[in-house]
Specification:
The complex is a heterodimer of chains A (148) and B (332). Chain A is 63% helix and 3% strand. Chain A has 148 residues and is mostly helical. Chain A has two domains: 102 residues, no CATH class; 45 residues. Chain A has a two-stranded antiparallel ribbon. Chain A starts with 7 loop residues before the first strand and ends in a 10-residue tail after the last helix. By secondary structure, chain B is of the alpha+beta class. Chain B folds into two domains: 167 residues, Four Helix Bundle (Hemerythrin (Met), subunit A); 109 residues, no CATH class. Chain B is 56% helix and 11% strand. In chain B, strand 4 and strand 5 form a beta hairpin. Classes of the chains: A mainly alpha (148), B alpha+beta (332). At the A-B interface, helix 1, helix 4 and helix 5 of A face helix 2, helix 4 and helix 11 of B.
């Protein structure tokens, strides 16, 4: 049984000679990403602590814009960086450690897109609902008192 | 013997040994399991997100909760130990993938060594998680829970290197013992058919007396201000809150109370890291089984080390989940 490995990462920017050296290369990359996360998490640079865009005011298109740009409008840039770096790490674990890079294209898509679609849906529903419950608890006409 | 009419094409498609998408049956089923398990974990994490959004202005700050490192007692080092755990797990993922690679080359000695290292890495991780749990349950400074279920913590304002800080003070240093506090009910000194769980270390009255006697101590609520810091009450407010609303002294965390803030935080911590830790534990057990099979030469005789590859997929998945747990529990 032949085991062909694709030895290029970063879209061909780095090409390894053997599968073993590719594994060590990916380890170094993942370690650097984790180190960056930890350093950012400990020092929390001031520039990443407040959103760069404030929510749009106005009619329908402002609301639509807020929904589409919600990661930038409502999320602290630091948290956005953490989530992006996490997805990057997950990509390299799945593609190189779990050998998804070497699988048939349709097999890979079947696995990845099923999960990505369902998880995005789940996250959307639950976070939307959580925000709504918050507004019910803390709105000006809230009937619930919790600080006593 | 067989009544079905087999044409040449049917033989090829349905006769067995066919590999759709060029993946073997076992490997494909492992992937299907991983996808469904990933949905379970994302259900947990999305539920965590729900609760966090629900209590977005009072959720505990992870940096203040997970500050301990073994053997470095009394130092506040947020995230260091979890980062170490993450590195251990990624490292054991690497040895696993090296074992798979050695298996492709039918190199029994190398597979054995790398499988062994993977098991060691997994064991270190599970041990670290047990330590994290113990530290979390044990608690740090203690707090007082109000009638509404909110947490009030204690501390004083100090200036370290020119920077104003809120230094936490343990309830052990605040409480002043009072006469006439009730003793825990035991079978031998009360009704033999009634049991009572352990009482909190101090009563609210003892904490209040200590608070009134020390002018420097202030109370901090779990509400976050616009900069993400917890609100510190004035001296009068502090005394008033404890006197009027204090109900229970809390040390550590369990499924009912949590000295770090919202009880849901502790619940999700136990469920998510527990569920993940159980996956790591079962992964270690499966790895041990495969390790012995490798030593006995099972896969050498079978002519293929694909089984190592399949458990490898599971092991990497555990690592993959931890990457997300790390982000959403400790970083964000």
């Amino acid at each position: 049984m032949a085991h062909e490995h694709k030895l290029e990462i970063f879209r061909g920017l780095v090409k390894f000679k053997s599968n073993t050296s590719k594994i060590w290369g990916v380890l170094i990359f993942l370690t650097i990403v984790t180190a960056v996360e930890v350093v950012l998490g400990i020092y929390k640079p001031e520039m990443f602590m407040h959103t760069w865009i404030s929510p749009f005011e106005g009619g329908f298109f402002a609301t639509l814009g807020n929904i589409i740009l919600s990661p930038f409008v409502y999320m602290k840039p630091l948290n956005l960086i953490f989530i992006v770096l996490t997805v990057v790490k997950a990509y390299y674990i799945a593609w190189d450690f779990m050998h998804l890079r070497d699988e048939t294209g349709s097999f890979r898509k079947m696995i990845v897109w099923t999960g990505v679609f369902l998880i995005c849906y789940l996250i959307f529903i639950l976070l939307q609902e959580g925000g709504y419950v918050f507004s019910v608890y803390n709105g000006e006409d809230a009937l619930i008192k919790r600080d006593f | 013997m067989n009544s079905t009419v087999a044409t040449g094409t049917e033989e090829k498609t349905w006769g067995g040994g066919n590999q759709p998408l060029k993946a073997s049956y076992g490997k494909m089923m492992m992937w299907f399991f991983i996808v469904s398990d990933a949905l379970t974990f994302s259900g947990f994490l999305a539920a965590y997100g729900f609760s966090r959004f629900k209590f977005i202005n009072e959720w505990p700050i992870a940096d203040e909760v997970f500050t301990h490192v073994p053997f470095l007692h009394g130092q506040e080092l947020p995230m260091i130990y979890v980062a170490f755990m993450t590195f251990i797990l990624i490292m054991s993922s690497v040895t696993m993938v090296l074992a798979v690679d050695a298996g492709h080359h039918m190199n029994k000695a190398k597979v054995t060594i790398y499988m062994f290292l993977t098991i060691i890495g997994g064991a270190i991780f599970v041990g670290s998680q047990a330590w994290e749990w113990a530290t979390f349950i044990q608690g740090d400074y203690g707090a007082v829970q109000t009638k509404g279920g909110n947490i009030l913590q204690f501390g004083e304002k100090v200036t370290v290197d020119g920077v104003a800080k809120f230094k936490r003070i343990s309830i052990d240093d605040i409480a002043i013992a009072q006469a006439g506090e009730r003793a825990a009910h035991e079978r031998k000194n009360g009704l033999w058919f009634v049991e009572e769980s352990t009482l909190p270390p101090y009563s609210v009255n003892e904490i209040y007396t200590g608070l009134a006697a020390n002018d420097n101590i202030l109370v901090r609520t779990q509400l976050l201000d616009e900069n993400g810091h917890k609100t510190i009450l004035s001296r009068e407010e502090s005394l008033k809150q404890i006197k009027e609303n204090g109900k229970l002294v809390v040390k550590g965390a369990n499924l009912h109370v949590n000295e770090y803030g919202t009880t849901l935080f502790a619940d999700f911590f136990f469920f998510i890291t527990g569920f993940h830790g159980f996956h790591v534990l079962s992964g270690v057990v499966i790895n041990i089984i495969i390790f012995f099979n490798v030593i006995l030469g099972t896969y050498e005789r079978r002519g293929s080390y694909e089984m190592v590859e399949k458990v490898g997929l599971y092991w990497h998945f555990v690592d993959l989940v931890w990457v997300f747990v790390f982000t959403f529990f400790y970083l964000v």
